Amino acid sequence: MDRIYHTLEKDRLKLDICDKDMAIIIYLDGEKADISYQIKNSRVKLIYILKNDHRITLNEEGLVFGGEVTSCLFDLTKAETSIKSVIKIHDGARFKMINKYLVLNNKDIAIDCINMTEDTEVNIDNSAVIMDGGYLDLVCTGKIIKNAKRAVSHQKSRSLVYGVPKHVDIRPILLIEESDVEASHALSSGTIDDDVLYYLNSRGITKTDALRLLIDSYLKCDEEIIQDLDEKDNITALLKRRLEENVG
Amino acid sequence: MSNALKIQDLHVNVEDKEILKGVTLEVKEGEVHALMGPNGNGKSTLLQTIMGHPKYVVTKGSITFKGRDVLKMTVDERAKAGLFLGMQNPQEISGVTNSDFLKAAINARRETPISLFSFYKEMEGNIKRLKMKDDLAHRFVNDGFSGGEKKRNEILQMMVLKPQIAMLDEIDSGLDVDAIRLVADSILETMEKEKMGLIIVSHYDRFFSIIKPTHAHVIVDGKIVVEGDNELVEKIDTDGYDWLYQQLKIHPRIEEKPLVFSLGTCALNPRSQNG
User: Is this model's pTM higher than 0.90 or not?
Assistant: First the structure.
């Protein structure tokens, strides 16, 4: 698998990929990033890592034609973040989106994934941990347009609230114009369960370590996504640092 | 210094209601104590209080273990001191794998973290011993487990964590006949190897017939009303508790079951509502 690394400062990035098997790791370092891509008949992992704690606006526009694309975004920063993603899926492509948000500040996120043609597949998985004073507004829309027969659009969002957040609003939306489709959305949101904490404590795990274990379960990297990438250690270290700062 | 767990005149309230009304009990290494009695009379309350569940408030009495005041310890300190509670209803923790969970639990007891090799060797050996699924380490804690799998998982944790006193609350419920034998044998092996003391709550003679308690206690209305050995377990299995109530002129507390209301579901099929 080829790998390309980008560090975006005040930049825009345009990707045109055809018949490739590759991973693209994008470090978002600036205040604004405009990213557009067109991926044809390829197997691509797109990994976005927010790097700094200053405010950032990300606009992402994606076109996927055939093949298999996995997009993964890690926002474990203290940054005020505004993200807008519009991804259009064509020609039997399979698109998987995994997003991890540690919400320490304001996060405004709007995701639109659109099945444009028949036999396309979209799976979205959002996980967020909202810490004391955090603000999260997440609108995740799966749309299947007319004549996109046998299209699949699934999304699930789960959030854990730790402390007293300013605002939490997660809205999963499905807009379906075709009847021969498979679609679902699921949302779970809750605080840390005292009985779960007790169970972990009863095995000798301190309260702090138990909290870290629970928060980590929401935000840690999916092994299958980053198992062969060097970024695994970076992301794990960043998450560890954030948990030490915020949980103890 | 004695390794015994000593409970002295223990009184416990739950939501301002007295559930335990003066329990005294001593458990030493190598002893197997059967805790019996009708449901809702204080058996689980006693075990949860020893482990330190915040819902159970000790109003009088003491618990000491190895000479230390257990009531002054946090829950994790009690576990690290060598107490273990195999729970009646183990928690499901979606997102946390069994291996991460157990590694954290083992490392909490060590100065330096356990090596991955030693950890997986220990875990896999015990998974095999309990005839559990090979992928257990990578599955989320009790998430999607059957009742029997959850109970085996509790025993797996006990085998890996090697406590000095293990309290097992209806650990045999949800297990089929073969699994009861397997779990009971594994408990006995661990007990022998680790010189463990046991407190077991069970309603089934089949389990006790394998474990063979050295002591038996019957709790009725928050008090131990009779004590004995394995013969008492067998008598209760044959005759039930009525003879005790008559002989001692006592009445069991009737278990209060919470009222359950259904608020319906937004996923109701309108056709099924009509018909």
Answer: no
